[in-house]
């Protein structure tokens, strides 16, 4: 059985990537960043300084790091709605500035009347100030009219005007995703949007941690600015000890929304064609019996099943704006009976595929196979157990295999061999103490004799005694070393017995 996934627009993507790279290289100095930050997560539950403080600070920091490093191409595609919000924000910002200018110009006009000008000078200055006021008012009206035109175009779904507006604002532009690192955002003013935009931040991660005993519920939201629009919400469950796993899981679910990737197109080719296959994507059955799907970019699990054929599944990371061919070659199920002969006389039960099969010296085990590898467990009458492994190449209808089950508890035997190994190791280490001491004594007498310090028969006799003791001690240490190696090999062999017994 084989499932193969391939993209059939590789050449197109390669060409587009080269063009994008060249354009990016030329405009590198003008590359825009989509910067996001995070706030310290809130905490709900019983007071716990470790979780409510350290964890709520650490988690958003690690999440930002994972989102930046977790994308092979960390660029966000700026969508139509986000462009619209940016335009409205810029128009509002421009209006605020214009209203300040208008107020300033009106104050200047009023101050003219307080000065001692002649009638002609007064008229000239008022006319000049009137022109300045009218110019500002004109800009304000143009600003309001532009916003009105944009809102009317989107409200009436005027495709021509919308397309014109989006082309003017560089539709589907890419911005590099960056974060504020370990620095968390702390709100210091009443206007969250104004404060974030003033710092050049486009995205904000917020979250809440709820404690249920030793378990946690973590809810995370990502919002983009301007507009204060939520683009993703994820909830996960786990424990504090699984923090790294939680970060990985949440970042993986948030990433497609953060990069705003375009969907992927999947085309299925299932062989043989006459097989009435059912396609599941992320556990959801395709009831329309079609072979073409559009899915969000990201990791999806595909499962194919058909009557009379073995089921197959795969998980794959599908990139956005890409066409994929999912080719599946189904394999017919090979149902039949397999006889298992036990080399050693055994009595007990063989547990396989949810069934218990009685085994005795007189009656070997018979199991139903379907062409897949067999992994079973044998439990004897004395509750001694062993796992059984039968590779697929030995499986065929009405065939027989041989199994050699050892009648002892692997766990107890491994523990016994472990104790003996550590005992031999302790004896070896202990034997080295006198061996090194005696070796030092022998070296001392040898060096003294070489320098002529000792020469009497009594000293030489003492040196020979130390040499004899050193040789005996060294021999004992060598023997202890051999014993340790022997016990180590026995321990490793016993530990290996915990692996499934392979049939022959």
Molecular structure report:
This protein has 504 residues and is an alpha/beta fold. The chain has helices at residues 10-26, 49-69, 80-112, 119-155, 159-168, 192-198, 243-259, 410-450, 457-496; strands at 2-7, 33-38, 42-44, 75-77, 174-179, 203-212, 215-224, 229-239, 264-271, 278-281, 284-285, 292-295, 298-306, 309-318, 323-329, 336-342, 348-352, 355-359, 365-369, 374-380, 385-390, 399-403, 501-502. Strands 2, 3, 4, 5, 6, 7 and 8 form a 7-stranded mixed β-sheet that branches. Strands 18-17-20-21-23 form a 5-stranded mixed β-sheet, with no helix packed on it. Helix 2 (49-69) packs across helix 7 (243-259), helix 3 (80-112) packs antiparallel against helix 4 and helix 8 packs antiparallel against helix 9 (457-496). The two termini are 24 Å apart. Mean pLDDT is 79; it is low at 10-29.
